[in-house]
Amino acid sequence: MGATLRVYKRRIRSVTATKKITRAMEMIAASRVVKAQRQVAASTPYSSELTRAVTAVATGSNTQHPLTTEAEKPIRAALLLITSDRGLAGAYSSNVIKAAEQLTERLKAEGKEVDAYIVGRKGVSYYGFRERKVMESWVGFTDNPTYADAKMIAAPLIAAVQQDTADGGVDELHIVFTEFISMMTQNALDDRLLPLSLDGAADASDEKSKGEILPLYDFEPSPEDVLDALLPRYVESRIYNALLQAAASKHAATRRAMKSATDNAEELIKSLSRLANAARQAEITQEISEIVGGSAALADATAGSD
Length: 306
Hints:
- By secondary structure, the protein is an alpha/beta fold.
- The chain is built from six helices and five strands.
- It has a five-stranded mixed β-sheet with strand order 3-2-1-4-5, with helices on both faces.
- Helix 1 packs across helix 5, helix 1 runs antiparallel to helix 6 and helix 4 packs across helix 6.
């Protein structure tokens, strides 16, 4: 009986130590998600206004630019998947990977080859385990991305879009990430960045731009030069905003997962404490029974000798 009680006490100590760890991780994630929310709120207006500027150039001129012109028969698409470097975030990475798989199947059904570009160790591990080809991968900054990281990611993607498909280029650029809506709600989202969809760009811009008829403009220098300058910034800003939203979503998912783990640890400690108390009571009862039995036996032996 004593051995059983020692087992319960050892398990209680182990679960208590785990609870302290999950509580600390919950508090860290809560502090980080606040900072990430501020970064998302600060970057979204810039991304929206830049989208409006690119839309104005594309709709206000008759220029044919490779980054805004639809291919007649697109045959290859680039897919940028943003996952996390770390786990302990519930279904965060699995949900966004599932969205990427659905988009891949949809693109393949349309007769397009898909070139994968991966951000985060979880996505890299997923593709590596299945021995799938990855064109480029980036790890180590998903918890706190910077604009320099977005610029580094955007460079090979823009180059692939500008390159001819016969030489390994792509006709489309898609991005899959987790959109941060609130502390309790984050949705895996896929979006096409290039070629620029004018309807999609209008939807991505401010509410006041919806339904607005963009006027014709005179451009200095030429519209082609303006697009050459704006579109890389457009891709970089959209990727940066996606990285920030993904980071905020990951921290929120971690906070939620760690809170659930902490609550489960508390329930398990209560359950183990009840079992330990029951084992202790059984041990005490057995000891009392042994004492009473021994006393009775001694009394009987004494009476017999008399």
